[in-house]
Design a protein that fits this description.
- By secondary structure, the protein is of the alpha/beta class.
- It has a single domain (13-186), classed as Response regulator (Rossmann fold, 3-Layer(aba) Sandwich).
- It is built from six helices and seven strands.
- The protein has helices at residues 20-32, 44-53, 70-78, 98-107, 119-130, 179-186, and strands at residues 13-16, 39-41, 58-61, 89-93, 111-114, 136-138, 143-145.
- A five-stranded parallel beta sheet has the order 2-1-3-4-5, sandwiched between helices. The chain has a two-stranded antiparallel sheet with strand order 6-7.
- A hairpin with a 4-residue loop joins β6 (136-138) and β7.
- α3 packs parallel to α4.
């Protein structure tokens, strides 16, 4: 798909980020794609207030907000009633530590991209979000996109991925993940048969 095939005019977007420079770059890229009036807020509290007043087609947020983590905001979104709980959430972050990416993925983020991002990367990710080929999964432990290729029962072993971490590993020991590593974590996984 090329940039001239999809225009975002008429799409309503909420940007949640306190970094004015990053927001300016992001809004310029979105304007280039035809989305001229995104709503911009700088905290999770302001995002919750905006979402209680309006319906959005897309939320783009930072992983680390001034008043909570992006994962906490996503969990709040997923706990709301429809249609808000199904809001596509794209996380654009410079904090690509493994524990951040895992927390965002497990909170129900649709996609995570590493800053700085290009207009083409933003376009590609939004185009992917516009294709509703994956089903939404709601369980006691998780609400978000089904990351399995097909539902064939629980995975072998204890049901955890190799990339899941215990809570005792901190940022100081973790490298920043590349965009390819982030994409691999967000890719649907094949579930073993039982």
């Amino acid at each position: 798909m090329t940039l001239d095939k999809m225009k975002l005019s008429g799409v309503t977007a909420l940007i949640v980020d306190s970094d004015a420079f990053a927001v300016d770059l992001l809004t310029q890229m979105l304007r280039g794609l035809g989305l001229n009036t995104p709503k911009v807020v700088d905290s999770a509290a302001a995002a919750k207030a905006a979402m209680s007043l309006n319906t959005y087609d897309l939320c783009i947020c930072e992983a680390e907000l001034s008043d909570c983590s992006g994962a906490e905001l996503i969990k709040w979104i997923r706990a709301q009633k429809a249609p808000l709980k199904y809001l596509p959430v794209l996380v654009a972050t410079g904090y690509s530590y493994l524990h951040n990416i895992t927390a965002l993925r497990d909170a129900g983020a649709h996609l995570i991209v590493r800053k700085p991002l290009s207009g083409q990367m933003l376009y590609d990710r939004i185009a992917w979000l516009a294709n509703p080929s994956r089903s939404f999964l709601e369980t006691d432990m998780y609400t978000g996109l089904d990351r399995r290729f097909r539902s064939m029962g629980p995975p072998d072993g204890d049901g955890r991925r190799d990339t899941d971490l215990s809570g005792d590993i901190g940022e100081a020991t973790e490298p920043n993940l590349s965009q390819a590593e982030i994409d691999a974590m967000m890719r649907p996984t094949k579930v073993a048969t039982i």
